[in-house]
Every structure is written in structure tokens, then in C-alpha cells.
Design goal:
The chain has about 325 residues and is of the alpha/beta class. Helix content is about 25%, strand content about 25%.
Length: about 325
Amino acid sequence: MTMCERIAIFGCKATTRFLLENLEIPYPIRYLVTLSPAAGLKHEVADYADLKPWAEARGMEVYQARYYSLKHADDIAHLNRLQLDLAFVIGWQRLIPAEVLSGLRIGAFGMHGSAANLPRGRGRSPMNWSLIEGRQAFYTNLFLYDPGVDSGDVVDTFKFQITPHDTAETLHFKNTLAMKYLIEKNIEALVNNDFRRAPQDTSLTPTYYPKRTPEDGLIDWELDVVVLERFIRAVTRPFAGAFTFAEGQLVRIWRAQVFDIHDFGYERALPGTVVAVFERGQFLVKCFGGLLLVTEYESNAPLQKGVRLNNGGQEVRRFPRNPQGFFDLSEA
């Protein structure tokens, strides 16, 4: 029978709390490594959750890290003093330092997903990028941490569908359930240190997605209507949302859909022009390739017909693409 009594979770997001609430495993998670609200704000953690009160109320020992990187001497010393058996890294968007990994008896296990599957699609914001790229499937990998970027040996993988209706939020739901499934399926092998691990395919060149920031939600009205609809789905809640400007006022768009590839008589309108406003506030925007129906948005004033949406003087950041037209690039 296993003696695995010191299990921790590293995380600071709503995803972390969901797993803590819903994991069905016969081993208690006694420790939580997380961030304070101030640190969550500083690092712009999307979907941040203050987990300390919740965890302490359930008898967990909570440590709020000095540095998100865990490289502060106090962080390393505290985590090594815990003498952890194993840890799950869920909702923690930083590498785990080698000095911390070496203090774990079994190891730290994290999740990384991408549409191309490892070793392709390492790096940042893979779910957002998958929606932007119009991918149709996503792979969630349970892997053993090493000091590299998503480079550890893979323990297990779960594949799920990306539908035309999925958003950043629904992909988060699917990915979280995939994480739950992978942990529950593999928990006995992990706690007994008897798990299978497969090195990532060295015949493939690893690729890395770039980091996205809230400023990258600026809408480029020069893009095709289908691409714009995917973009809005990709950066909606729990992220900061897609945004544009109307007569100098910020307009944040949370939900939209391709209305039609036909112009309904609005073919002379310039891209980004609001060509119709309906009685409940939804509005149509003329785009290249058709019309976009915006169904949920925030603005200080209702949108008016004839207004042309624009970038407000800000520069749209254009990310380089690989030869296949996607955004994951090799290190070179």
C-alpha cells in the first residue's frame, strides 16, 4: 500500500478551485501553493481566484508565493521544507524551478494542451491560439515537469473536439474536465511512483506559441469576417475580450457571429462600419467577406448606425506565422 501523504497543488485560478472541489481521488491534497490577490493583479492572471480563504476553510495548508516564478529564496526554502511527495500544477502559468522539482520525492505533474500535440504547440495561450487558427481538436497532456518549457515526458493524453461554437470559456471547461479525467485515471500509478512516461518525439522540431496580452484583443477590421468571429470567441471571458473604438469610445465585444456572407445591400460600406442596429441593441458590422452580428458588448453609449469602428490610434500587433499558416514557431 502506498505511503503518499504529502500532495500539493500549485495554482491560482478558477480552474484550480474547480479541480480541488471535484477531483475524486482517495488521497487528500494537503497543500496549496498559490498567489495573493495583489500578485494575481500584478501578473494579470486571467481568471485569477483568491484560493487562500477557501482552502484554509477546508483544512489545507496554504503558501502564497513571494514570486510567481518561485525563484525567491524564501519560496524555494519553504517548498523544500514541506518534503512533498508529488504535486499537480494546475492554473499556474510559470515554469517550476529545478531547485523545487528536486525536492519532490515523486515529481511535479502538469498539464499542457495544444491543437498540434506535443512537442508542437508548447508555450503560451494554446487554447486561444487554437480558436484563432480555426483548429478542430485539442490534446491535453499530463506530463512530468522538468525545468524546460513544456518539455517533460508525457504520462497520458486526452483529445477533445473544438466545435464551431466553442469559446475561450467553453474550451477552459473542456480542458479542465480533461485534466480531472487524466489525474483520476492515473492517480494510483502516480502515487505509487509506477507510472509510464514517454519522452516527447525528438524527430519533430518543437514549436512555441507566443504570449498574448489583453492589448492583443484589439480588433483588426481588415480581416475576413470568419477570422474575426473566431478571434472574438478566442479572447472572450474569462479573458479581457476583443475591443475596438467608436468615435473615441472603447467598445468591448464579448460575443458575435457571422451573420451572412451576403451584404444585404451594404456592399458599399467600408469594413468596420456599423450598418444596422436592431431594437435590442445588437448591431451589424460590414466586414470583408460578409456581415458580423454583435450580440453582446460593452460601451459607454449605444452604437449608432453609420459609425465606423477603428483601432483608436493603437497599433494592431501582427504575429508571425509558420509555413503552415499557424502561429507556433520553432525557437530559431
